[in-house]
Design brief:
By secondary structure, the chain is an alpha/beta fold. The protein has two domains: 296 residues, Rossmann fold (3-Layer(aba) Sandwich); 146 residues, Rossmann fold. 41% of the residues lie in helices and 13% in strands. The protein contains 17 helices and ten strands. Strands 4-3-1-2-9-10 form a six-stranded mixed sheet, sandwiched between helices. The protein starts with a helix and ends with a helix.
Length: 456
């Protein structure tokens, strides 16, 4: 039965690769910038002591008991980790689809990185800093592959006790759109038996699972994402490719780039001083509907893709806003009622990413061996976060003690001797109270893991 699933997974992985190659904005035909090539050459080191390096010998052994790595530009990727931790979509013994009452990642351990210091990733493309963004994304992967981190921001030297990972799940749509191809290319260059997956193609496959009555010529799909993800055109291409391969009809696809919603969810004080999360959601969705109306396409929005991993944390606000605007009456008219379907279907790519991760681990025969003692036990999770490096002489800080926004966006790739941010274990007091409240109430598996780490 395992061979059957592996054969099916092989075909699925081939289809995924083709879709990624055809749909991705940054593909194998586009040459890497010099800074990225420099980083790829710099990273494999034995011993691995410098920043942004890893020891390849750590990954030339049986990898099954190593952890799975997940990263994002902040806390948004925690929604992907939550979906992974809570998934029960397969039989753990036969590997066939179907819940068996046991978590699918039972026996696995995890390392999570939130690159908080450099977020939001979605702003770099708009500033013409795609090359630097690609470097940041690859650095995230290198951190997960290595052992190096700093005990805290006051430490004078790093330590090397983190476990390297056997697989990487990119819990960020912008990082998937701009960096998945780079990571897979680097893994191939380094000849590592490690794989990486992203959320965009997983989200597109979630659309394929919707019935014909929901998607088609008479309806529209709305992709809600960051400006950077929308600029990449990754979702329209991936959706069209996935539907085309399935022989399905092609609905209209519209995108809305939210400039500051992710930062507001992260608790950015400068953003929240101007607008609340709810005000941002209402403003941007109304802008999307106005643009949709002006386009004259007329197809009502029947499906919403949460194209930023932060957005599931405000899913209720998004759906309620759409419902409220559908019923909004102004001067005796309902300006948006014809543009919003009565029933809205929501696609959260996080769940589909979790499913793909399970299948990919089975295909690569990298699933951890589960024991009776592990059944029902809490998984081991190490949470890390990036922070400004107080020892870096060139670093520039803003009034909130984070990187100065102008400095952050003006940095150039290839400066591998400048470690202006460092990675440290996450502490609960590093997360804004509003964001922490969302995690506590909406991500129970993640919250449990965070509490265990902070109680140690």
């Amino acid at each position: 039965m395992e061979d059957y699933l592996i054969m099916r997974s092989t075909l699925l992985q081939l289809a995924i690769w083709i879709a990624c190659w055809m749909a991705g904005r940054i593909d194998a035909q586009q040459s890497s910038p010099a800074g990225l090539d420099h980083l790829i050459a710099h990273a494999p080191k034995s011993p691995s002591l410098a920043a942004w390096t890893f020891d390849p010998s750590d990954l030339r052994q049986d990898l099954r008991q190593l952890p799975i790595g997940v990263f994002d530009s902040g806390i948004g990727g925690l929604t992907v980790l939550e979906a992974i931790l809570g998934l029960d979509a397969y039989n753990n013994d036969t590997l066939q689809p179907g819940a068996d009452g046991r978590k699918d990642f039972e026996g696995e351990s995890f390392v999570y990185l939130g690159d908080q210091a450099n977020m939001p990733y979605g702003n770099y493309p708009a500033a013409g800093q795609i090359d630097y963004l690609r470097e940041l994304i690859l650095k995230d992967a290198i951190f997960l592959l290595g052992r190096r981190y700093w005990p805290d921001t006051n430490s004078t030297e790093p330590v090397f006790t983190k476990q390297p990972v056997k697989a990487i799940a990119i819990g960020c749509n912008t990082a998937t759109a701009y960096g998945l191809t780079d990571i897979n290319s680097a893994l191939k260059t380094w000849n590592l038996p490690v794989f990486a997956i992203g959320v965009v193609q997983a989200g597109a496959r979630g659309v394929v699972q919707l019935p014909d009555a929901v998607i088609g010529h008479e309806s529209s799909i709305a992709v809600l994402a960051t400006v950077g993800t929308c600029r990449s055109e990754a979702y329209p291409r991936a959706i069209q490719q996935a539907l085309g391969q399935a022989g399905r009809r092609q609905p209209a696809i519209l995108q809305k780039g939210f400039v500051d919603l992710a930062a507001a969810i992260e608790g950015d004080p400068q953003v929240l001083a101007r607008n609340s999360v709810q005000q941002i959601v209402h403003r941007d969705i109304r802008e999307m509907l106005e643009s949709h109306k002006q386009s004259g396409s007329g197809q009502p929005i029947s499906t919403v893709i949460l194209g930023c991993t932060h957005f599931p944390l405000v899913k209720e606000q998004i759906i309620n806003t759409l419902r409220d605007l559908r019923e909004l009456k102004e001067e005796g008219q309902y300006p948006y009622q014809s543009l919003i379907a009565e029933s809205i279907h929501v696609v959260d790519p996080a769940e589909w990413t979790a499913r793909e991760l399970f299948r990919s681990l089975a295909l690569a025969r990298l699933r951890a061996a589960s024991t009776d003692q592990q059944s029902g036990s809490e998984p081991s999770i190490d949470f890390f976060i990036s922070a400004p490096n107080p020892r870096c002489p060139s670093v520039q800080l803003g009034p909130d003690a984070g990187l100065d926004p102008s400095y952050k966006i003006a940095r150039q790739p290839g400066q591998l001797t400048v470690e202006d941010t460092i990675v440290v274990p996450l502490q609960l007091d590093q997360i804004p109270a509003g964001s922490l409240n969302l995690i506590r109430h909406q991500l129970p598996h993640v919250w449990s893991g965070m509490k265990r780490q902070n109680d140690q």
